[in-house]
Design brief:
It is a single chain. By secondary structure, the chain is an alpha+beta fold. The chain has 13 helices and ten strands. The protein has a five-stranded antiparallel sheet. A three-stranded antiparallel sheet has the order 8-10-9, with helices on one face. The protein has a two-stranded antiparallel ribbon with strand order 1-2. Strand 3 and strand 4 form a beta hairpin.
Amino acid sequence: MELIEKLTKLVESWIAEFLTISGGLQLGAVVACGALAWLTHRHWQQFITRLLGDLEKQGFIRFFLRATDRAAFPLSMLLYMIVSRFILGQFEINVAVLDIFTPLLLSLAAIRIAVYTIRKGFPNSPALRAWEGMLSLTVWMIVALHLVGWLPDILAALDSIGIDMGEGRFTLLSILKLLIAVVIFMLAANWFTRVIESRTRRSLYMSPSMRVGLTKVSKFVLYTIAFLMALKSVGIDLTTFAVFGGAIGVGIGFGLQKIFSNFISGFILLFDRSIRPGDVISIGTRFGWVQALHARYVVVRDRDGVETLIPNENLITTEVINWSYTDRNVRLKLPVQISYNSDVEAAMQIMLDAGNEHPRVLKDPAAVTRLMAFGDNGIDLELRVWVRDPEAGLGSVRSDVNLMIWKRFKENNIEIPFPQRVVHMSSGTPATDDI
């Protein structure tokens, strides 16, 4: 209640100040400076995007221009307020209100530039831009409360609201401190994991699965350490969370069982190296190559460009065909049937030449043709060829080689038979209908 009374008295004093002539002039000056600063900010943005052009694409210059864009509004408003303060001072008008805005605008410019600098260490995204604005506003509000002298009273009020749990006490202030500490330590952990990921990506002595595994392990360890350090930094005793240990165990045993299973399965896939990024796999009716390994799922992209998210547990518990586990070479079998009246040896040579002429067919192992069987309608032949890049598709190779065989067969009068049936009619007693 004390805080509310203080705030009420402070608001009443501000209202009384604004109702005076000097207060009204200062308030009008603040509004006018804000409008002029907004127009200046818009013109500065147009200057950056339209006049500088290609210079903005360069790294340091782009960073510098974007940083000045963040500080353009508060700094230009501060400049206009300095001019307004000088003009009002010539008429001996009290400028106490304008004096308050000077440190507020300076702190806003510094905070926006600092937050933008920190954000540049993370991948660019719309969500990150939104968080940049929220973080800048939150930090500036805390600084503003400190500058106007309200922060100690607000912190005391937040600290007075809480609940007792065992020997510890949780207040709104401790929860806010915990959230701030978690955000800071998580940002630091995320930055370290990105550094580790970029270093491992440039390494020439690490396989793709080792890179993904090291990144996942480092991310899990760093995030865990960051969370524990955040708890310790705000003075929270970890033993107070023993009450929640059983609840977390029950949650993992029931509601989080699948998530936890997929998480552990992801580490198993990484360490046994059965599936790696770039592998060509078949699971059920899905065929494609592995794009990425994540903590919960594997991304498999097929020839149609469709990306399927397969849970890690499915790759552990079901049968998976890895076409490139130890060798990327894949053999294709192309069955062809020719008529009994055709030259078998010539047909086999034509099939062999058609396979060898395709650019994706390997010379070693060499393509071969086989006479498989004497069928009801013709002689069954089979062309066997090897390709090294199954992720580029097998249907295109099959189609091209079959089309070439068809053309060569027509040129050499080799016939591909169609099903034939010979029906012999008995010349005995004609059939009669029984009624």
